[in-house]
Amino acid sequence: MIAPPRPPADALALPGHARDRRGLIAGLGALALLPGCALVSALGSARGPSAAYDLGPDRPMPRAPAPLGEELVIGLPAAAGALATDRILVRPDPRSVQYIADARWTEAAPQLMQTFLLRAFEETRGWAHVARSSYGGPPDHLLVGELVELGVAIAPDGAAQAEVALGVQLLSRGGARRLGARRFAETVPLADLEAPGVVAALNTAAGALAVALAGWAIATAQAGAAP
Predict the structure, then answer these.
(1) 144-165 mean pLDDT
(2) Which residues contact 227 (CB under 8 A, 6 or more apart)?
């Protein structure tokens, strides 16, 4: 039996088609008729092996004024299925999910964010150890949460922005006591959807989020330790 011809790699991916979710964004329908349509030009056909990108703190983190505990454990954030991948996510509209061609994260997005936060919180010097799991007994503090966004959102007018959002809880006594909870979100406008620029914007947004999150966590841990 002869297999039907495969659609061209730069064809528009329709929501719900699993094969296209592994493919590319190339048209986004009516967005091509609106200002900002050049934003989709970088999402054309695959040209070879995917480049791998990482996230890393790009600015100084706030320093704790005094030691806050021996150990901080940063749990693996929960994430919806569309984010539980090493692909760089793009939302052409609130109901559709696509991924940038020829670009991947060095690890799945939840693990990537966990590693990013480990690096950021090590710089605060508030804890002797910052780890993914406890070395022994219950940690002094536990940071858990959900990765809500790590990708690109495209508005109806074609404007695109990098978005990072994370909801967190800070717990003490190995999780026995909740000290506080908060949602953090940052955005950075994008001029185009070329992978290096998208990653740079996401890194900038993640850096700003990490500064706000670390400052909040330090203040919350201090308040929780007060008699």
Answers:
(1) 97
(2) none
Helix (H, G, I), strand (E, B) or coil at 37: helix
Evaluate if residue 40 carries a pLDDT over 90. Answer: no
Return the SS3 of 167: strand
Its pTM stands at: 0.79
2 found inside a domain: no
What local confidence, expressed as pLDDT, does residue 174 receive? 79
Is 35 part of a structural domain of the chain? no
Averaged pLDDT of the chain: 82
CA–CA distance, 227 with 127 (Å, rounded to integer): 20
Cβ atoms of 83 and 98 closer than 8 Å: no
Range of the domain at 90: 63-225
Q: Which of 166, 152, 171, 155 is nearest to 213 (CA)?
A: 166
Cβ atoms within 10 A of the Cβ of 206, count?
26
Distance CA 208, CA 203 (A): 9
Long-range contacts of 4-9 (CB under 8 A, 24+ apart): 8/45, 9/44, 9/45, 9/46
> Is 168 domain-assigned?
yes
Domain count within the chain: 1
| Structural domain includes residue 31 | no
So what's the pLDDT on residue 173?
A: 84
